[in-house]
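Hi, here's the filled form for the chain we discussed.

Project: internal
Contact: R.S.
Residues: 223
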Amino acid sequence: MLEVVSDVLRYVVQMIPMCLLALVIFLFARPARLRRLRTHGLVSGTLREITLCLFLLFCAGLAALTLFPSNIWSYVLTFGRGWYDGATFFSFYPTWEQTMSSLAYLSNMLTPFQEIRRALGQMSYWGLFMLLGNIIMFMPVGFFTALLWRKPRWWKSLLAGFCSSLTIEFIQFFIGRSSDIDDVILNTAGALAGFWIFCLLRAVFPGFIKKFQCQPRGGYYYG
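And the returned structure, exactly as it came back:
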């Protein structure tokens, strides 16, 4: 259990730089966004604003973990001290030759369920951690898109998870990260699971869930 907590905290710490940047952008852009909503006769309540901010922070943290080379944020957070003697920020990125050599493994990357079967067959800690992590990590994508968008539908959350995961895997191929179709499958499943959690909360607390939607000024939108 302590090992799981330690690994989770290590990832959370690496999310901090991008989360702080996202917070600054959110606060800077918020007045203009609220003015734009008012021109359309809509208001965004405090609860919705807080939730939207948290979702953007999560998305920024997810980008930090997936759209940059491994360990680059540990290097940044320690100001380059104690990490990989002689390393620089750009040395974490692969050369073009290294990227092209990865094409030899493209068929393995595109074979579905191969890594999932391996993780379940070996039942190793790290394999199961990454398998469950790929599902849990994308549950907020499906949950918050359903919570914050109008007329939530399961296919919208599924599409959000699929498109974001596919984009991440495509970029990871060029930054020296492991790309695999199984990650897309697990991430999409996680987004869909997030949508069903939203459905459960909506069934139990229907009035509460509606507070996360933009509302017409002077009234409530229940569409």
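Let me know if anything looks off before we file it.
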